[in-house]
Amino acid sequence: MAPLKTFTRDEVAKHNTESDCWIIVDSEVFDVTKFADLHPGGAQALLMYGGKDATEDFYGLHRQDVLLKYAPRLKIGSIADETPQIEVADPANFSKVPYGEPSYWMGFRSPYFTESHTKFRQALRAIYAEIKSEAFMTEDSGKAPSSELYQKLGAEGVLATQIGPGPWLKGLKLPGGIKPEEFDYFHELIAHQETARIGTPGFADGISSGYSIGLPPIFNFGSAALKQRVVPEVLLGKKRICLAITEPYAGSDVARIRTTAKRTPDGKHFIVNGVKKWITNGTFSDYFSVAVNTEKGITMLFIERDDNVETKAIKTSYSSAAGTAYVIFDNVKVPVENILGKEGKGFQVIMYNFNHERWYICGAITGATRSVIEECFKWANQRKVFGKRLIDQPVIRNKLASMVSQLESVENWLENITYQMCNMSYAEQSVKLAGPIALLKYQCTRVAHHVSDDACQIFGGRGITKTGMGRTIEAFQRTYKFAAILGGSEEIMADLGIRQAMRQFPNARL
């Protein structure tokens, strides 16, 4: 490859025809002659800038990664005695945009986070930066994340970081060289936030949601033999698992499920019949943690996919990469040893992980919300209207102020609850945290609602366009409602939070 040259602006100005077209972007020179006909906006969109500096208009229309993508092919040199003024952000590094990171990574002090958490976040972000292009392709195609990628994430320890600290981490490699014994809920919180930060919600759920709620019933309630076989397979990405509770007839009201499991005459198996709906990762899962009704009541079973298990894709607001499924169990034969916990005690198994599931949803939605706010800050500084940057308009600053203040409030509440999880037994968490986590989830999703609304207004038409500058905003406004519904809807969370508080209400009067 020939070395890049330097040019004067007068020299560049001579290359202004259809057969010889150069442009300048931030002091760098690009030969776009052959690319003009390939430009999505048509050749004239580029040719009108022939021989000119297109920096301001370029950044009013494109993200910086567009420049990085095409620079290796189109860049021919730079302007002599000039240096680029726009800093190239490395997606693997922490953001320098105000409020683009939780406060600890913006230089503030924290009683919770340590260097271990910084190493972990940095390593995880680098992994996601490496696979980001594949994430976008998977999101857009609607295909399941590839088995090769899934196993890579398993080998890197990424999958294991999303189910919390515990003995199942022993012997596993974790990002950043974090030792399994030092891994805590703050590390896990970072894992959920970083996964959501990619900006591909369907893909993110495709690599994280199913096992993060489907595997805990196995390692908490499965037999020793089941745990020994299944847990390593899932954490290393060799097998996929999902949680199958919701049905067309029953959502939050779990007691109304109709899927049945009847014992065979010899008592060694159950025959399972029924349907499940909206099962994340269901289309490509090998294993299912399933709520059924036996003669003793609600029971949780571990079911392996076979010819009698059929899954059909359900189209939702986000990408089919999440594998959302309608699952049909048609005379599925399941060994009685696959009971998770005790027969008739399935409700306790289901409830055991609900606090954790709702907490991790809070982590994911705050991570996604923060990435949206970062995008808004960037765009407001980049985009000019009526001769001014958006950030110079008071109404835009007011929107940003509202967005930031709401997110920072729930982030601090989330960190406080995470600290309690690190320092409470499970029994104490069950008593003290069910209500606060429910209310936190309610507030996190309300914040997401308001942030999405303001972000769309800031981005205008781009905020409702699936590609280009507003991609992250469009994806968020289309999918943030998942967090408001899954794991317990906002209305139920609000009510649960207050009902839990009333249990502690003193027998006193004013």
CATH fold node name of the largest domain = Butyryl-CoA Dehydrogenase, subunit A, domain 3
Q: Tell me which CATH architecture of the largest domain applies here.
A: Up-down Bundle
Going by CATH, what is the homologous superfamily of the largest domain? Butyryl-CoA Dehydrogenase, subunit A, domain 3
Unreliable parts: none
How much strand content do the residues show?
Answer: 15-25%
**Alpha carbon gap, first and last residue:** 83 Å
> Main beta sheet: strand number and arrangement?
5 strands, mixed
Number of strands: 15
How many domains make up the 3D coordinates?
A: 4
The global form is elongated
Strand order of the largest sheet: 1-5-4-3-2
Binned, the helix content reads 40-55%
Description:
Helices cover 46% and strands 15% of the residues. It is α+β, with helices and mostly antiparallel strands. It folds into 4 domains: 5-79, Cytochrome b5-like heme/steroid binding domain (Flavocytochrome B2, Chain A, domain 1, Roll); 103-235, Butyryl-Coa Dehydrogenase, subunit A, domain 1; 241-350, Butyryl-CoA Dehydrogenase, subunit A, domain 2 (Beta Barrel); 353-503, Butyryl-CoA Dehydrogenase, subunit A, domain 3, CATH 1.20.140. Helix 12 (354-382) runs parallel beside helix 15 (434-459), helix 13 runs antiparallel to helix 15 (434-459) and helix 15 crosses helix 16. It is elongated and about 90 Å long.
